[in-house]
Design a protein that fits this description.
- The protein has about 180 residues and is an all-alpha fold.
- Helices cover about 80% and strands about 0% of the residues.
- The radius of gyration is 33 Å and the shape is rod-shaped.
- The two termini are about 35 Å apart.
- Mean pLDDT is about 75; it is low at about 175-180.
């Protein structure tokens, strides 16, 4: 209510000063009556045009800010999901096997993680990552002797890095104008 009263007071003061200016300018013959009407009309038209242009510019700016906030939120969510997926993949493959029993079903957890990933990634990206995850599981679960272990880890790192590259390109897809750290 106080804000509304302040607005009324401001409008009243503007009107009072405007009328006082007009009266003094006519009394001191700064402007003639006919000249003042033409100037008021011109000023009024200029003010209206300025208000319309300002309104349009503010509308465009507001739309861009809302789009930026939305894009930032999507970007942050994608980043969080991708990081969590890689962490979960590491936890599941850490012991060198995929445990599936009554108490612990790592394969089921991995499937849910892939489903969550598919909700936030483009279809081709999700399918490619699923293929790489399958290959990673194949690499992890192979019984190998010490000579083949170096090849195993080279293959594993190749597949994990391929997933990271896919994440990176998909995460930034459509978000080239995002500024990190505002």
């Amino acid at each position: 209510m106080k804000k509304r009263n302040k607005n009324h007071v401001s409008v009243a003061l503007i009107i009072i000063f405007s009328v006082a200016f007009l009266i003094t300018s006519v009394l001191f013959k700064v402007y003639g009556i006919t000249g003042i009407l033409a100037q008021l009309t011109g000023t009024l038209l200029g003010t209206i045009i300025t208000a319309i242009v300002t309104l349009l510019l503010l509308g465009v700016q507001t739309d861009k800010e809302l789009e930026h906030e939305k894009d930032s939120g999507i970007f942050e969510k994608k980043q969080e999901i991708y990081h969590n997926f890689l962490k979960e993949l590491e936890v599941i493959t850490e012991d060198g096997k995929i445990t599936v029993d009554n108490n612990k079903d790592e394969l089921q957890r991995l499937i849910y993680q892939l489903g969550l990933l598919q909700m936030h990634a483009v279809k081709d990206v999700a399918e490619t990552i699923t293929v790489y995850v399958g290959e990673i599981i194949g690499i992890i679960t192979k019984k190998s002797n010490p000579e083949i272990k170096s090849k195993k880890y080279a293959n594993l790192s190749e597949k994990v890095f391929a997933i990271v590259v896919i994440y990176y390109t998909n995460k930034w897809c459509g978000f080239r104008n995002i500024r990190i750290g505002k």
